[in-house]
Specification:
Elements lengths: L1 H7 L3 H50 L2 H10 L4 H16 L3 E9 L8 E6 L3 H5 L18 H11 L5 E7 L2 E11 L5 E10 L1 H55 L20 H37 L10 H16 L6 E7 L2 H8 L1 H18 L5 E3 L4 E6 L1 H5 L1 H17 L11 E7 L8 H24 L1
Antiparallel strand pairs: 1-2, 1-5, 3-4, 4-5, 6-8, 6-9, 7-8
Helix pairs in contact: 2-7, 7-8, 10-11
């Protein structure tokens, strides 16, 4: 799982770097587009003002009623000629004017749709190379399409100046057009001026490149500064905290030594939320140590209580509670097919006589004396005190195999103690022992084995009493 997490995770430093770069790129693009749009609008606004001034100056020379008469008669009036001369002077004065002219839309057919009314020419074109000059009444063949003618109708019948951009064989022109009206307000023609703006696009491109370069350079500087700051204040402290936490988790898993549950806190310089998080983790690990220490203490107390609950306070061997647990385990063994099961039962003789004659303290000495003999004889098997003067042995290993020999050895020691003159009367313990092995033909359960062992013990006790009476 750890390998999988390492493989699939995305380092914070890389995520911040990618996010920062993407953000700066988007920001640079948006700023460049916005800046370029503002600059382009500014340039075009300047040209619209320039065109408006030219149109206004030209309109000052035009007499609408006189011009209308010229259009209708096809004859150039003196005022017409003065207007034409003034327009020639304007186009000579402003070198960036491509055309300054007035036309009248006639229809919206593909040919013959527009009539020339006024056309300014430069001095050379007007008086020297006159080929191609337009004169009053000239009607176009295919210079204007139906769409353009319709636009001219709309301008002539409309109000105010209309600006539009168009591509010509000489480049890009920015056109401003305004209606010419007679004294009654009727539109009689359209006055237009075409300004060469081919260089504007080049200028805008150059500006855009410089602008993008400045913004990109600023973005790169910001990225560098931000990444250095984020590494110092975010990613490096988080990585240090992560390494310390992972090391603590790996080292502490299954750890029972409270002293080993130590968190190596990273040295975080940044005084921010990560520092607070590190301090919180340190405090959490300290609380965890205290909690684990309390759990271990409780477990030790529980273990001691369990020992006390299963230990006979007088002899120190296992008590009746522990014996009952062992009996249930043996019964489970029988049910699962275990065959090698044996029990021995030992009972102290004359305990009541000792208590009545010498006192209960001496009776306790006799019980402990017998217990030590049993434990010494059956030293490979657990011994239980199951009553005041009764003991049980769960036979195991060599004790199971040599039970008869050990029983005989038990009686030898008992008889030797009875003949020992240095022992006090209560120390010369007498006891009977009986044993039985599990036999599936005789026993239904472990209690049946115990009853047979207990019966054998009582038979031995009767025999010993009969011998003593003789």
């Amino acid at each position: 799982m750890k390998v999988g997490r390492e493989k699939n995770r995305r380092p914070l430093n890389r995520s911040i770097t990618i996010g920062c770069v993407v953000f700066i790129i988007i920001l640079c693009v948006l700023l460049s587009l916005a800046n370029l749009s503002i600059y382009r609008n500014y340039v075009y606004s300047d040209y619209r003002g320039y065109i408006t001034d030219i149109l206004a100056l030209t309109m000052d020379y035009i007499d609408g009623d006189d011009l209308k008469s010229c259009i209708e008669t096809g004859v150039e009036s003196p005022r017409y000629k003065e207007t034409l001369l003034s327009m020639d002077n304007l186009i000579d004065h402003f070198s960036d004017i491509h055309y300054l002219y007035a036309v009248r839309p006639l229809n919206t057919e593909e040919t013959g749709s527009v009539m020339s009314v006024l056309s300014a020419e430069r001095y050379y074109d007007r008086y020297i190379d006159t080929e191609g000059n337009l004169y009053l009444g000239w009607i176009s063949d295919d210079e204007y399409d139906s769409e353009t003618a319709a636009q001219l109708f709309e301008i002539m019948n409309g109000d105010g100046i209309v600006f539009f951009e168009e591509q010509t064989e000489w480049g890009t022109d920015y056109t401003g057009a305004v209606p010419i009206r007679d004294s009654s307000g009727e539109g009689i023609a359209v006055l237009a001026v075409d300004i060469d703006i081919s260089f504007i696009n080049d200028m805008i491109k150059e500006y855009a490149l410089v602008n993008i370069g400045i913004i990109a350079a600023s973005g790169l500087i910001f990225i560098g500064i931000f990444l250095l700051w984020s590494r110092r204040n975010i990613t490096i402290p988080i990585r240090q905290l992560e390494q310390s936490a992972v090391c603590f988790a790996d080292h502490s898993h299954g750890q029972r030594d409270v002293e080993a549950l130590s968190f190596d806190a990273p040295d975080i310089k940044a005084n921010n939320e990560i520092k607070s998080l590190s301090d919180a983790v340190v405090k959490m690990t300290e609380d965890m140590r205290e909690y684990v220490s309390e759990i271990i203490s409780v477990e030790k107390i529980a273990e001691n209580m369990e020992v006390l609950a299963n230990r006979d306070p007088l002899t120190g061997i296992r008590n009746k509670t522990a014996y009952d647990t062992e009996i249930r385990r043996l019964q489970e063994g029988i049910e699962t097919g275990e065959k090698k099961i044996g029990l021995a039962v030992v009972d102290l003789n004359y305990l009541k006589r000792i208590n009545d004659t010498y006192g209960h303290e001496k009776g306790n000495v006799a019980i402990k004396k017998l217990c030590s003999v049993i434990c010494a004889i059956f030293d490979h098997s657990p011994v239980f005190r199951i009553g005041g003067d009764e003991f049980a042995v769960v036979l195991r290993g060599t004790d199971y195999d040599n039970c008869e020999t050990l029983t005989a050895r038990f009686y030898e020691i008992i008889h030797a103690m009875a003949e020992e003159e240095t022992l006090e009367p209560w120390e010369k313990v007498s006891a009977a022992i009986g044993f039985a092995f599990y036999d599936e033909s005789l026993d239904d359960d472990i209690n049946s084995v115990f009853r047979r062992a207990d019966h054998s013990m009582y038979e031995q006790k009767k025999s010993m009493k009969a011998v003593r009476e003789e």
